[in-house]
Amino acid sequence: MSDALLRALSTVQDPELHRDLVSLGMIERAELRGDVAQVKVNLTTPACPLKGQIEREVRAAVLAVAGVRELELVFGAMVRPPAQPPLPGVKHVVLVGSGKGGVGKSSVAVNIAASLAADGARVGLLDADVYGPSVAHMLGQGSAKITANTDRKMQPIEAHGMRFVSMANLTPAGQALVWRGPMLHSAIGQFLKDAAWGELDYLIVDLPPGTGDVQLSLTQTIQVTGAVIVTTPQDVALIDAARAIDMFRKASVPVLGVVENMSYFVAPDTGHTYDLFGRGGSRKLGEQFPLLGEVPLEIGVREDADAGRPAVLAHPQSAAALALRGVARRLAGQISVRTLADLPEQLPVV
């Protein structure tokens, strides 16, 4: 490691963590080869929302070092786990919930997971909506069946660069589950602990709507990193979202942010914007919690879900897909910020 380069890099702060890259242990390599500086920066998540800003500031700092004429900059990523990882091999468990049904919670959860995976993270997706599982259909795996591996653990199904488990892949199509609370608790425990999730940076959990048994079982079974609340702009949805937030507060689960889904609609023929459900109501919640994004209502998101391909992959340049990618990256940033609270003040250079 070059002392001159490390001194220069110590002036660059992570814009979300508000500490310099060197003390955060984000510099893997900082070497001088003649007048060429070779630097590798390990971001705290592959989905870093402010990578561009970090790159600009690193270039400015390094190229200001005497004798440096060129910079070869490489980025990696290392998602740090909390002090107490929730499951073996799983660094973060994030719950995606809503106070009521019909707000597009499952669609948001699927697209968050797909976006994080597309950015290079190791991602799992648990469909905990046992009574109304829809994740398998949205991923084009409705007819697939979960099998057991050689260790007699459930083998998650792989789709679009992630692993997932859903009750839809364990029961006959169209069969209703008539289960009481203890059976739900047992099923959730099996999904979490008896599935071969492997090494994951993030396990995204799609919760059923409301504040019932599944939510209680999850928060009592494992230590989760936090929750995301999905709502729509109208008052009735916001009232129910506030109830969901209160439930997580009572369960000591941090709320990482709010997503306003179906925020507005842009008519494809005229380009006129319609606020079908009002707009901006979630900003009231955003005064207490980060507003991760406002996702427009688009026909394509529904069509992509029915076709079994997340919108962020099927039509990545659509307005809804870009908003959902932003949601996922801001969420990853919030997770990094929360994890920082568990880190020592000074970390060794990697």
TrEMBL record:
- Identify the domain of life: Bacteria
Query: By its UniProt entry, which PROSITE patterns does this protein fall under?
Result: MRP (PS01215)
Report whether Translocase shows up as a keyword of the record: no
| Gene3D superfamilies xref list | Fe-S cluster assembly (FSCA), P-loop containing nucleotide triphosphate hydrolases
Keyword Protein biosynthesis assigned to the entry: answer is: no
What family name appears in the similarity comment? In the N-terminal section; belongs to the MIP18 family.
Under the subunit heading, UniProt states: Homodimer.
Function per UniProt:
Binds and transfers iron-sulfur (Fe-S) clusters to target apoproteins. Can hydrolyze ATP.
Q: What is the name of this protein?
A: Iron-sulfur cluster carrier protein
Q: Where is the organism placed in the taxonomic lineage, from the top?
A: Bacteria, Thermotogati, Deinococcota, Deinococci, Deinococcales
